[in-house]
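User: What would this chain look like folded?
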Amino acid sequence: MKLSTLIMLFLAAVLTITNAAGQANASINIVMGNAGITNLGGNNLLQITVNNTGPTSSIGVYKIRVQISVPTAICEVAPFALQTGLPTGWTITSQTAGGIFLSNGTDIIPTNAARNIYIAITGIALGGPSTISGGLSFSNGVAPGTGFGSLAGDNPLDNTGVTAITVTNTTPVTLTDFNAALVKCRPVLNWTTETEINSDRFEIERSSLNNSIWISVGVVTAGGNTSAKSQYSLIDRNLNGSSEAVLYRLKMIDKDGKYKYSKIVPLVINCKTTQVDVYPNPVQKGRLYVSLTGAGKYTEATLLSLSGQVILKRKINNGTNYLNTANIANGVYILNITDGSGIDRKVKVLVQN
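Assistant: Here's the prediction, encoded as structure tokens.
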């Protein structure tokens, strides 16, 4: 083989090794927290993941420039003071309501490494889903966000990403049940949720029947983000057994401070006698509630016509029970409450659906 050919092969090999040694690939992925749902006036976190999937080289200082653009019709980038989710070495080079620029600063990103960045986004108007977009470019490696540059070996096809945001004004908790019962002379509150998004805590509040002042009697930590059925319980230990009738309600609070209330349920604190309360009476919208305390096992509620015909029958328990009267004709009925210990209470009920 001629010497010139050998020299050319040697130089080609050197160039190949040199180029391989300088290969890096930056990619970006963005996703909005809490399934993209943000409360009006509240904050949500946008997660930005920057990866170096290059085979051989780190990404040097001041090299990455991340640009995020938000739909200003419904949201904006939260104030600078709230942007506390940057990795060590990263800096914000510029920021407006509609976007933010970031630099990796002094953070060298090794090959096969990733950086997670969290940017606070504020919901300012109802709407969505709308698109948040993000992209990567490269600076000259001298100072944050200065000059234009390139990254050897970078694949531009993974340098952009999008996610969606929706701004709502409701607390995203689906409450399917809330009831109160007297157990061993202590009020026990039970509730069930089907889904929770950005949920922080639940507060139980109590009031007397003739008092509009509500006081908090306990707090239970919420599930946060879940699509599974969740069951909760709390005992009101600050109310002694008496013949006092009280009201309870559930305050559902999310991480942004937004909240909403459940329905109000009554409970009679009476440890010696059976108490039956029926409401509302007249019955409207097909919902009849029966509040029961002090009853034994196998308690049954039977709705009878004035002629004695059985219209509806079901088992009930101590606490708040719900009877569906949506398919019952308007008129006057007798609600008969019985149990195995001899309780037999009759209440006249007027149905006006």
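The first strand starts at residue 26 and ends at 32. If you want, I can go into more detail on any region.
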